[in-house]
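User: Please fill in residues for this 242-position structure.
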């Protein structure tokens, strides 16, 4: 994938929901070896555990879910296959390798009246980085988050969302539950509540906002078509497709 790799030690593992954990990663050297922009992602793999480790070569990309101002990196991983399973078996003190962060799904300034975020399931990982950065930098009068999960016990960062709401009067959050889930890219249910009327009722000054979407593809396409119908220019809508 790349010749330039970096080593980080797993400093803390935070269970977020039954199949999702966050990993705080401390750099091997005391200084952070690179900077990143909220929304970017990097290649990650567990460091080699032994000489005969055939799975070691596989990289997967994970979004940086913390803020660029943190002293550790943070990633949040849904357990669903080869590398994510291996990441979930790591313990604090283990090591991972990463690439340099990349990606163009990044927070743009100016944000107009404020950014509007749409997150479906694990798609909330890059969105969390953006929200934390907006709050730290005081960007936008309003920050709106629409987040969709299969069920209340599968909400990721639920406690943190309450803290954001308590700390910042401009922050609004709407949580939606869509029933059984767990598939990688489930089709958006025809009855998903994020329809045009739902969005128009909740988004103040919709033409003066910047939109960021990271969700299963079908759901993102639905939201994009509602925003278009509301008259939002396409250049104000940014989507991350995994
Ligand atoms: C830009 C970007 C950012 C990303 N950010 C994140 C992030 O922040 N957090 C995150 O969790 N993920 C993120 N991903 C997804 C991540 O990179 C991996 O794709 C994901 O973790 C799956 O990799 P894996 O090795 O665990 O699964 P793989 O082994 O590659 O399997 C992929 C999928 O196929 C299914 N599968 C595998 N084998 C079979 C089989 N035999 N039969 C049926 N189904 C099978 C698995 O269940 C899984 O859903 C991101 C991806 C991109 C491109």
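Assistant: Residues filled in for all 242 positions:
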């Amino acid at each position: 994938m790349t010749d330039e790799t970096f080593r980080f030690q797993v400093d803390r593992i935070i269970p977020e929901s039954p199949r999702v954990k966050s990993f705080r990663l401390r750099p091997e050297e005391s200084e952070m070896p690179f900077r990143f922009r909220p929304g970017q992602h990097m290649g990650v793999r567990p460091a080699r555990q032994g000489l005969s480790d055939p799975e070691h070569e596989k990289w997967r990309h994970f979004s940086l879910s913390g803020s660029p101002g943190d002293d550790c990196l943070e990633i949040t991983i849904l357990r669903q296959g080869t590398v994510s399973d291996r990441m979930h078996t790591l313990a604090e003190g283990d090591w991972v390798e990463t690439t340099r962060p990349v990606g163009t799904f990044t927070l743009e300034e100016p944000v107009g009246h404020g950014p509007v975020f749409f997150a479906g399931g694990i798609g909330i990982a890059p969105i969390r980085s953006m929200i934390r950065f907006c709050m730290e930098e005081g960007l936008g009068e309003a920050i709106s988050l629409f987040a969709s999960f299969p069920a209340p016990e599968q909400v990721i960062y639920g406690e943190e969302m309450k803290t954001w709401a308590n700390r910042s009067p401009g922050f609004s959050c709407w949580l939606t539950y869509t029933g059984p889930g767990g598939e990688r890219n489930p089709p958006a249910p025809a009855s998903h509540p994020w329809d045009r009327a739902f969005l128009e009722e909740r988004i103040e000054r919709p033409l003066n906002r910047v939109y960021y979407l990271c969700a299963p593809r079908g759901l993102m396409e639905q939201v994009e078509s509602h925003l278009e119908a509301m008259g939002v220019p396409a250049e104000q809508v940014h989507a991350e497709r995994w």
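For context: The radius of gyration is 18 Å.
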